[in-house]
Amino acid sequence: MIKLTLEELKYKANDIRKDIIEMLLEAKSGHSAGPLDMADVFAALYFYVMNHDPKNPQWAERDRFVLSAGHIAPVLYATLAEAGYFPKEELKTLRKLGTRLHGHPHRGALPGIETSSGPLAQGTSQAIGMALALRMDHSRSRVFCVTGDGELNEGQCWEAFMFAGKNKLHNLTFIVDRNNIQIDGYTEDVMPLEPLRDKFEAFNFHVIEVDGHNVRAIIDACNEAKAVFEKPTVIIAHTIAGKGVDFMEGRFEWHGIPPGAQDVSGAPDKKEQGRIAIEEIRTLRGQIKGEHE
Ligand SMILES: Cc1ncc(C[n+]2csc(CCOP(=O)(O)OP(=O)(O)O)c2C)c(N)n1
Ligand SMILES: [Mg+2]
């Protein structure tokens, strides 16, 4: 069980972001926006909220983590490596032939990965199954499931949510990455989700909305979820897509490409994107003057 201070969590999220950019530059393919914007949530979960043991990944009493939005795998890999599940050096093998770090997570390939994912929405059903089974076993373990907001366009999610609400799965917390982008546009243009809070409430969820870059607020929301007994909880984490890299922030064009691969309007020349992204993250946009590496 790891518990960092709030200050340490902020730096840990930044380390995760730096790992993500380095992995993507090395792989020359993969998703940038979602992984970067979920770094604060992942830091809070793995370095404060969840009961887990990197030295004993199969510990029966661990909390379970399901990454339903499998395409944001780089943030999961970076977080697991930072937590000590496998050597950080291995991050460089992302998407390479023979790697354990597939483009989308593969159960059994790496310690700490509970489910295979990539086909959107399936993780929501897997998470409710896990939560129901844990409750039947009288386990104190909790289930955390991260979904994208565009992912909620999949009807399967709402079948899973209906089941979770009906069965009052209070040991289950969904976290929605509300970054307002999806694969080829802004969510409200492609398929409007609002009023999202009302939709979840209608499915009998306890709903909490947080600034997804405020680790304190994320931790408080997870604690609040623990205190709710009659309902599953959804935390709608409002995030800025591509958080940490100015030219990526809020732009759906960075959903599925790494820095350095393409010239994108409003972004630096592709040859400069990687260097600039690393520098912005390393210095927290100039807030840190080199002492934190
Ligand atoms: C069932 C299914 N349909 C389509 C896709 C292709 N796909 C991958 S990510 C994505 C967009 C998801 O949007 P969101 O969940 O908001 O992720 P973000 O762009 O914010 O990373 C799509 C359509 C998929 N992986 N699975
Ligand atoms: Mg999204």
What would your notes on this structure say?
By secondary structure, the chain is of the alpha/beta class. The chain has one domain (about 5-280): Rossmann fold. Helices cover about 40% and strands about 10% of the residues. The protein is built from ten helices and seven strands. The protein has helices at about 5-25, 35, 40-50, 75-85, 120-135, 155-165, 185-190, 195-200, 215-225, 270-280, and strands at about 65, 145-150, 170-180, 180, 185, 205-210, 235-240. It has a five-stranded parallel sheet with strand order 1-2-3-7-6, sandwiched between helices. Strands 4-5 form a two-stranded antiparallel ribbon. Strand 4 and strand 5 (about 185) form a beta hairpin. Helix 1 crosses helix 3, helix 1 runs antiparallel to helix 10 and helix 3 (about 40-50) packs parallel to helix 4 (about 75-85). The protein is globular. The model has no long low-confidence stretch (mean pLDDT about 95). It binds thiamine diphosphate (TPP) and magnesium ion. The site of thiamine diphosphate has 19 residues, from helix 2 and strand 4.
Ordered list of secondary-structure elements with their pairings:
Layout: H1 6-27, H2 33-37, H3 39-49, E1 64-67, H4 73-83, H5 122-136, E2 143-148, H6 155-166, E3 172-178, E4 181-182, E5 185-186, H7 187-190, H8 196-202, E6 206-211, H9 215-227, E7 233-238, H10 270-282
Parallel strand pairs: 1-2, 2-3, 3-7, 6-7
Antiparallel strand pairs: 4-5
The structure holds thiamine diphosphate and magnesium ion (MG).
The site of thiamine diphosphate has 19 residues, from α2 and β4.
